[in-house]
Each structure stands twice: as structure tokens, then as C-alpha cells.
């Protein structure tokens, strides 16, 4: 009798232990999901803050400089991208933003910052590019509220495949696509309106190769 009772007790204890372990497992999964979501939101907030700060600092500098020495930047596809040490010297970025030879995003990838002169308006345009953004961070960043109009100075967001260097999507304000007679131009392939709509951003970010996406913001100065 004693032996049977002990066996029953051991059996019940094992079931209880398995039940406790399953509950602990579910709680752990829930906690990890919550922590990951919180971590993602922190990075999104840091990204918004970093870009806002870069735009503000760049306007304070580039709007008063008529000619920037060519030795301080590298020209790629018509855009003059500053070297990281020059960005710190001009106080466009903080020294804490620099990791090695490049400026780093909250996601750890490199950031390229430069400017070009718009051929039509002859205005300087600031370019900020987050390189090698994986699919999840790419989606998170594109979901950031950049406003409902161009009052911030944002003129477009361009997403490229970081490996193939092909344009996956270009987001522009609707007013930019009006013809002189007031008619609306037809959107070209992969072109969309700002603010970014969810149905386009998911398809855009999942179209990248293993290297990830390059997300480029352009602001008027």
C-alpha cells in the first residue's frame, strides 16, 4: 500500500511540475515578446530623435555655408556625402553618434549624410541615408509619423535594395506631383504618396535581399 501511494504521489508531482513548467514557459514567451516590442519602440524613438537633431543641426550649418570644401565630402550620384569627422566638426552629429569611420544609427548600421543642390529650385537638399536596414527595422522606421504635410521640410523618402542598389519605393507629397495646369501626374512605378501607407511599407521592406534596405530621407534646407 505504501509503495502504491508513493508512486501515485510521485506521478501527481510530475504532472504538477510539468504544468508549472508550461505556465512558466508561456509567461517567459510573453515577457520576451513584451521586451522585444519595448526594445523596438525605444529604437524607433531614438531614430526619430536622431534624424530630427541631424536636420536641425544641418540647417544651422549648411544654410549659411555657400561653398563646402570638396576635401570634406565624397560625391556619389550627385550627392556630397560628408566624412564622419567633418560631420562632428560641423556639429551636425554628436561624437557619440560616430562608430569607427562612420555615423551609426540606433540599429547599429552606418548612416550617410550629405547634400546636393536641386537643379530646378537651386535649393540645397539634405540627404540622410540609413544603410543595411533589416526587414523588421525597415518596417518599424517607415511607420514613424513624419507628419501629414511638408511643414517639416521633408520632401521624399526613398527605399533602395542595399545589395542591388535598385529603388524599391519612393514616397512623395501629393502636391509635388501636380502639373502646371493643376492636373495630377500619374504615379510612376514604385512611387507612392506620403504619409507612408501600411500596405506599401510591408511589401517594400520584404522585397529586400539579405543585405537589407537603404532608407533615404531628403529635406529642404
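^ Assign residues to that structure.
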Amino acid at each position: 500500500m505504501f509503495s502504491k501511494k508513493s508512486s501515485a504521489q510521485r506521478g501527481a508531482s510530475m504532472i504538477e511540475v510539468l504544468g508549472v513548467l508550461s505556465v512558466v514557459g508561456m509567461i517567459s514567451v510573453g515577457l520576451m515578446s513584451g521586451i522585444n516590442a519595448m526594445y523596438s519602440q525605444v529604437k524607433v524613438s531614438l531614430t526619430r530623435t536622431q534624424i530630427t537633431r541631424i536636420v536641425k543641426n544641418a540647417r544651422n550649418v549648411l544654410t549659411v555655408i555657400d561653398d563646402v570644401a570638396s576635401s570634406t565630402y565624397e560625391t556619389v550620384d550627385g550627392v556630397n556625402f560628408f566624412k564622419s569627422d567633418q560631420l562632428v566638426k560641423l556639429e551636425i552629429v554628436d561624437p557619440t553618434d560616430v562608430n569607427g569611420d562612420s555615423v551609426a544609427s540606433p540599429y547599429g548600421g552606418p548612416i550617410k549624410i550629405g547634400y546636393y543642390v536641386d537643379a530646378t529650385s537651386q535649393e540645397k537638399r539634405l540627404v540622410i541615408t540609413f544603410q543595411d536596414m533589416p526587414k523588421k527595422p525597415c518596417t518599424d522606421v517607415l511607420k514613424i509619423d513624419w507628419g501629414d504635410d511638408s511643414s517639416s521640410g521633408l520632401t521624399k523618402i526613398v527605399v533602395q535594395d542595399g545589395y542591388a542598389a535598385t529603388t524599391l519605393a519612393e514616397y512623395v507629397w501629393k502636391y509635388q506631383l501636380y502639373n502646371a495646369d493643376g492636373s495630377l501626374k500619374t504615379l510612376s512605378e514604385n512611387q507612392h504618396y506620403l504619409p507612408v501607407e501600411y500596405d506599401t511599407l510591408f511589401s517594400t521592406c520584404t522585397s529586400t535581399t539579405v543585405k537589407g534596405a537603404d532608407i533615404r530621407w531628403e529635406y529642404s534646407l
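The helical segments are 2-62, 84-89, 135-142, 198-205.
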